[in-house]
Amino acid sequence: MAEQSPAQVARSQRGIVRVAAAAAIGSALVFGVAACGAGQISQTANQEAAVNGGSATVGQLALRDVHITYPRVNADDAFVNGGPFEVAFLISNNSAYQDDTLQSITVPGGGSATISGSRALPATKSLRAGQPSLLLTDAPEGSASSSAEVPSSQVAAQESQAGSVGNSPDPTETRITVTLTGMGTKVRPGLTVPLEFTFQRAGKVTVNVPVDAGYVNQRRDSQFLNRENAEANEQNERTNEGSEGGSGQDNYGSNLPNTGSGGTAG
């Protein structure tokens, strides 16, 4: 093997250095891109579903949008008497082969829940209760009034359109009705009430269930605590504005020069 000249040796060394530098840069880029999110909390890590209700997962069952709907008829009486209140939720059985059954819903601390309809949860099927926020039916035109003022005939028509108990428009869902009674003062708009769901296979799970605030809250003057004082203040303000306007005109007239008297004197 012929000996290399010093110039050839230098060129060979420079080539090796270039290859090593290129490899080092490539490795740095790969590791830098792969580790750019290491130790960081992604923006989607703590996002919640855009629904009103609570949620929970037990075994292969997913409970979603669990909430107590605002009474559509006689809301004031329902809150005074502690019921009846309707519970809305969707329970999905995500198992591909194992069926389950909703055995009961209990209220820790007092109150009772009544389930009307089939409680079976076949594999890959769902169990839906209530009508959450009118998502299952189209609201009639002009229905922007408070849900507490909806006539009972209109409520019955909406329920008929949505399907009776056990007869859901969606073939993968079974419709049921869950009613709460004897709740005392625990159910109030904006509060949460714990409900315990018991399933035959999945077991028990407790969900903090929020209470719906209603569809539209109308303003009622009778709800003001100091209605008489508010009306008296408004009347006084109108009276003061009128008196100030009149006194201003009187002062303006008194400041004008008396040209008539001046002419007589001349």
UniProtKB/TrEMBL annotation:
InterPro entries: LpqE-like (IPR007410), PCuAC_sf (IPR036182). Coiled coil: none annotated. Signal peptide: none annotated. Residues 139-158 have a biased composition (Low complexity). Pfam families: PCuAC. Residues 159-175, 249-259 have a biased composition (Polar residues). Residues 135-175, 220-266 are annotated as: Disordered. This is Copper(I)-binding protein. It comes from Williamsia serinedens.
